[in-house]
Specification:
Elements lengths: L8 H29 L2 H26 L2 E3 L6 H14 L5 E5 L6 E7 L2 E7 H6 L2 H17 L1 H24 L10 H44 L2 H15 L4 H4 L30 H15 L9
Parallel strand pairs: 2-4
Antiparallel strand pairs: 1-2, 3-4
Helix pairs in contact: 1-2, 1-6, 1-7, 2-6, 3-5, 5-7, 5-8, 6-7, 7-10, 8-10
Main location: membrane
Protein name: Protease HtpX homolog
Subcellular location: Cell membrane
Length: 305
Amino acid sequence: MQSRFRSDRRLTARMGVTLFLLGLLYVGFVAALIVLLKSWVLVVVVAAGLLGAQYWFSDRVALFAMRGRVVEREEFPELHGVVDRLCAIADMPKPVVAVSDMEMPNAFATGRNPDHAVVCVTTGLLRRLEPDELEGVLAHELSHVAHKDVAVITVASFLGVIAGLIVRFAFYSQVFGGGRRDQNTAVIFAAVMGVSAAVYAISFLLIRALSRYRELAADRAAALLTGRPSVLASALTKVSGDIARIPTRDLRTAQAFNAFYFTPALGREPSVARLFSTHPSLEQRLDQLARISAELGEAAAPGGG
């Protein structure tokens, strides 16, 4: 069922191209592993099993990693009320609502499709935002679900995760030391590590490029659905500023899920690092919202409309 979130053909095209390129890369990666390891059954079974697990259980893994828990209406009536209202406006199924007991102000959505989705906010976000700002953030997250880019990012990240795990395994198993393995084995492991590192680097760049665009698409869709882009801009400014003041050690556990967050758990980034960021810069996002606000004839002040 099509939701009332504004469709984005450019986002759909980018998702299709990214999945196509990653699919080609995935086939080549599996073929290289089969040639190097000489065991197609092991490679195919393990790869298929891990892909299936990531697709079907990504929401549970994300909630567990971020200490999120499903909450009922009786516990967080205001939060459920906002989600109910937005889902009614957008004409989409209501996702599972969860809360993570973290000081870092943020939110994320995950799940394989709109009927099996989770929207999670941190207690730090709930404490900091006004109700209309929270609505803007939740509209942003729900647009990810409606556009199905959450599922695409989940599947797309699979290849990079597997390649990264293989690189780490090869590194920590000390394939080049100890003299316990013969020279041929060391060469095979070195080749596997090299192929995996190359695959990880390519998939990393493809996913980052898609992730930055999908955040702009979600901002745009949320602003048009609510008709209040300045409120979303206010929430963005507030959350980004507060994250920059959170101690770095408290952000480290969250960085693995940056691609899913409303804003990255990095604080301030050097200009060079932004080239590899999961999110566009705050300036880009605010400029886009300002343009939409002007198009809609909304008052420039946050909260106006």
